[in-house]
Amino acid sequence: MVSSEDASVQTSNRYGHGPASLLDKAFRSSSIAADSRTHRVPGHTSQVDTLLRSSTTQNSRTHTLRTPTSLLNTALRSSTIAEDSSAHHAPAHHALVDSFLRSNTPPNSGENHVHSHTSQVDGMINTSTTTISASSSQSLERRARDVEGFRLFTMAELEAATRNFSGRNRIGGDVYRGKLADGRKVAIKKKMMFQLLLKKKKMITSTTAEILSRLRHKNLIKLFGYHEGNDLRFAVYEYVENGSLHHHFHDEYNGDVLSSWRMRIKIAFDACRGIEYLHYYADPSISHGHLKPSNILLDADWTARVSDFEWSLVSTNDAYEKARSDDVYSLGVVMLELLTGKRDVAEHCDKTIPAPESISEEELKKILDPRIGAPMLKKETKAVRLLLSVAKKCVKPNSFWKMRPKVDSIVSELGKALSLCGGSPDISSGRIPVIAEHSNKAEEFPLHELVAATNNFSPDNKIGVGGFGVVYKGTLADGREVAIKRSESNSKKKIEFEDRLSVFEAELDFLSRLHHRNLVRLVGFCEDKNERLLVCEYVLNGSLYNLLHHKNKGSRLDSWKLRIQIALDACRGIEYLHNYAGHPIIHRDIKSSNILIDHNWTARVCDFGLSLTSPGYNSDYRPKKAGTRGYMDPEYRDQNVLTTKSDVYSLGVVLLELLTGKKAIFKHGKEEISLVDFASTSIQIRELEKVWDERVEPPRHHEKKALYVMGDTARLCVRSEGKHRPPIDNIVAQLKEALEVFNDRE
Q1: Contact between residue 607 and residue 544 where contact means Cβ atoms under 8 Å apart
Q2: pTM of the model
Q3: What's the confidence (pLDDT) of residue 294?
Q4: Binding site for ATP: what residues are annotated?
Q5: What is the pLDDT of residues 214-241, one digit of tens each?
Q6: Which residues make up the binding site for ATP (predicted)?
Q7: What per-residue string of b and e applies to 211-240 under the rule 16 or more CB within 10 Å gives b?
Q8: How far apart are CA 57 and CA 63, in angstroms?
Q9: Is 84 a known active-site residue?
Q10: Smallest Cα–Cα separation from 276: which of 266, 265, 288, 267?
Q11: Which domains can be identified in the chain, with CATH numbers?
């Protein structure tokens, strides 16, 4: 669902210095119209005005300018804003004007293809870079099937869903509630093409849609698809029941929702979690660019979910720190609004709000929203002060943007604040629906393409064996390197094939719905008679198991910092599964051979063939036991008790592998011994040096602290009873603390 509020320029400016607000300032003094009046627009925006007043193409043909759209198209055919780079060096965000105008250039008449203009600006790519002509819809439909649930809608479908855009279905502004033929409730946002330029809005196009459709997080709104005509653009979003934070704050104050400080802090925490996912765990990384209360929606469980990605930008390298900092500023403004109930606090925050640590109880009471008043409990007061402290750091002026905190540290602080209020940072409910049709989720390959990609499944291309089958390295016809998982087709028993089919369906289902930089991505699949193949991205450096235990001396990991970083990456991938993928997912087969290391030495969890949604949501379901000896939770192995803490046990074993360099089960003299039994006691009695991997240079004095943090975390993870093991978010926090020991010394 999208915002029901079309904010004015002044409203947009309050929530940040991102591309939206910068363009607002540039356009404030000029109304770009279709007539020939002269406009004096400061700076680079005058180029837009020049283009709009241009009405003659280079080949001197005369065009009748009947609509604003045709005026834009004519102007664009005759000029390119950025062709003369020596004469015109637009600042990064103003170059978005160029990218937007280029994206509206129509394909040549009669041609059936997509024009793609990627505007790279200081390491950023405008997500709205491709304009699709009406004649290219079939081509886009083929691309659209690669993304789960994403599709092009016809105008007839949208009219039927909204009862011809009935006033009764209008939520606010140009947003309509609708119901699709398959029963899904949606919110449909309508924009005229020329409005998009006048209001500095970008249109949703194929590149945007493909990126957004891959995003899966409980604190983000899902994009289902879109429709575009000659002058109108429609984006079809997931509908959420309880509207926007802005609506509850200012249009119709809802005391039930906002009358508790715990709930307000929870909303801030949820929104920050959504932005954290975009910044650090979406692949590629994304900055939102236009965060404000009307773009924070509340679902049926009153979970806050970030929406409206019309200004979102995709990073191609590390040069987009400023854009991420702008998102942090906007988060700070939202936090101040949650605290004070006022809209215009951020700009004068330094003058009007004292430092939270020195503010008196009376001063705090004056600052806080009078509709809720000061908190009554000491812990709650401490939580509110913590929220205020974080908010003030976020809204440092633009000249000090580098001093604003990173969103992951904000999440950590708000998690503490929420705990003080008696709330849990990680609350999940419900069950993931089973999706039967896989053709809408991933590219379907014919078998002959995968045969060619792997040299007929040559033994030379074999790179491993997973829960689903043998894994081969392959090169597709377009040059992409992939890992192809093939189920053996020569089974003697039908039941064996049915078991493999179940694993295939499970892995395809999970992979097509998950998107996180610490999880391996699905590319596509193949079903051909008895053949079942999964096509995943190829991860360059292979498995953690091979790097740790391979006999090749050059393959081992010789840095404690890197080992802790790998542990943190793997735990973040599992944290996403347990807490943020929608509803809890249990991997069931976490081990070092299912953790792959990419070209940047980032760890990525793979092999979801045995994964399940949490059985707590279906108490009658008792799956067959699955897992790997040495990594398997003893409660699950002996009592068939399966919870997310089963994954925590397996992660603990992986942490011990990273610390000791030993396998989960290894030979000690003539006997086999469990790594858990070997290492736990030494860690507990503070004799870690007896078991750490001697192939790595001994840690310096300050680094020992980091290893003990990791060791203690591992020891807690492998406790025999699940109820005594830490939750995954605590493990992530501990490993972040361990890694900071190294970062602080650099």
Answers
A1: no
A2: 0.56
A3: 87
A4: 485
A5: 788 889 988 888 888 777 888 888 898 8
A6: 485
A7: bbbbbbbbbbbbbbbbbbeeebbbbbbbbb
A8: 8
A9: no
A10: 288
A11: 443-537 (3.30.200.20), 544-619+626-744 (1.10.510.10)
